[in-house]
Amino acid sequence: AVVSTQSTGEKGGKVTTYIPSLALYSPDTWAMACTVDGQMHDCGTSDDMVTMQSVTKPLFYGVCLDELGEKTVHSLVGKEPSGHGFNKITLGRGNIPHNPLINTGAITLSSLYKAGQPMSARFLAK
Question: N or C: which end of the chain has fewer CB within 10 A?
Answer without folding.
Answer: C
